[in-house]
Prior knowledge:
Blueprint: H1 3-17, H2 27-37, E1 41-46, E2 54-60, E3 77-85, E4 99-106, E5 116-117, E6 124-125, E7 134-136, E8 148-149
Amino acid sequence: xxxxxxxxxxxxxxxxxxxxxxxxxxxxxxxxxxxxxxxxxxxxxxxxxxxxxxxxxxxxxxxxxxxxxxxxxxxxxxxxxxxxxxxxxxxxxxxxxxxxxxxxxxxxxxxxxxxxxxxxxxxxxxxxxxxxxxxxxxxxxxxxxxxxxxx
Length: 151
């Protein structure tokens, strides 16, 4: 596969998946996220710009909890990853500023919890099962056209 086809295919997939990427972020969304996170450049986000579920951006700071110029985590978000660029003034920052690539996720979004499977586990169904999905907890919604195999 030549490079042009591969790049087009990669761009096409990123747009279909639904994650906002550098190719799809509007100026308004970028400005909203920049204001929310004190960012200089926005790489991507998931959800809506005013309260994204996840965001990747650059900021004039070192990583959180790393010295005097540490990035202050916004309320309601937790750090996923961070790396500080060794070159000053990149990614929209001031010419003498340290820049960090920061990925955050909303703390209000519950992470999936491994529960206890019910007797439907490992079984195949021609219609969507509605019971015995979990021995404890609550099953998530089932969608699709089937057949379904539960694992």
